[in-house]
Write a structure and sequence with these properties.
mainly alpha; 280 residues; two-stranded antiparallel sheet; disordered N terminus
Length: 280
């Protein structure tokens, strides 16, 4: 007796390993992954989240207000002369978005993937790897945007937003956080030990210190300038700094394009990696 075939309403479920086409990757339900992350966050301590917001604020007060009183004004690449605090504040805003997005898209994802075994359970349902990737990236994005929105409010209170275009810094920060979250999760999907995870901090710290965060990039030798300009945080800093100081230019499209590509690469990599790990 031949085995029965499955057709019509009894076809393979969209999340099972045997399906093909677009449904093999995406079931259109990334919101359920996001909702699960938000529910889990309510049971965790709020101190961990809040502490990440205050780190750039402390840097701003110590460096911008303290050291800035000795440094004086800074001339930006666009020719503007601004107070030192107004110079580093947008850079710290970009750093705040990066930190919030990276923390959730790396360590949290690492635990879920290697210890919690959550993704195996998710992908055994109708969810596809793209649903899981987008859901986790959006969750990390929320934390990055939360940090950045709070820091942007601090900048406004201190009078460090020098142009009306500062209102555009928030959507710019969303783009930046999205880029770091997607690439952060993609990189984490290839890591399997805590020692390997230390490389993330090893990369983030130099980016934070040298991406024209505290001083203009022109202080470096030209070969080092090219290296810095290849880093994502430099593009984030330049984009946000231009918006908060009102120095708009065509070069901003390059920064936006950088993060669009970064998002696309990150989402594609993590989707393929999740499929290879848990479905193939």
């Amino acid at each position: 007796m031949s085995a029965p075939t499955t057709t019509g309403s009894h076809a393979t479920e969209p999340g099972t390993p045997g399906r093909g086409g677009v449904s093999a990757l995406y079931a259109g339900n990334a919101r359920s992954v996001l909702a699960r992350g938000l529910r889990a966050a309510r049971s965790s301590t709020w101190v961990v989240v809040v502490s990440g917001f205050f780190e750039p604020v402390f840097y701003l007060l110590a460096m911008g207000m303290g050291l800035g009183s000795y440094i004086g004004d800074i001339t930006t690449p666009s020719g503007q002369t601004v107070a030192y605090a107004a110079y580093i504040a947008p850079a710290l805003l970009a750093v705040s978005a990066m930190n919030g997005a990276v923390y959730d898209s790396t360590w949290n994802v690492f635990f879920k993937m290697n210890f919690g075994k959550l993704y195996e359970g998710m992908l055994a349902t109708s969810l596809g790897p793209l649903d899981v990737a987008l859901g986790e990236i959006l969750y990390a994005l929320l934390r990055g945007v939360l940090y950045a929105a709070g820091f942007l409010t601090v900048m406004q209170v201190l009078g460090l937003n020098l142009g009306w275009t500062a209102v555009l810094a928030l959507p710019a920060v969303v783009l930046i956080a999205f880029g770091f979250a997607s690439l952060g999760m993609a990189v984490t999907s290839y890591l399997s030990t805590f020692q390997q995870m230390d490389w993330i901090n090893f990369v983030m710290l130099p980016m934070f210190l040298f991406s024209a965060t505290f001083f203009p990039i022109t202080v470096y030798p030209e070969p080092l300038q090219w290296l810095v300009q290849a880093m994502p945080l430099w593009h984030a800093v330049e984009l946000v700094r231009g918006l908060t100081t009102g120095a708009l230019g065509a070069g901003m499209l390059v920064h936006v394009g950088y993060f669009v590509v970064m998002i696309a690469v990150g989402v594609v990599l993590v989707t393929r990696r999740l499929r290879a790990l848990f479905l193939d």
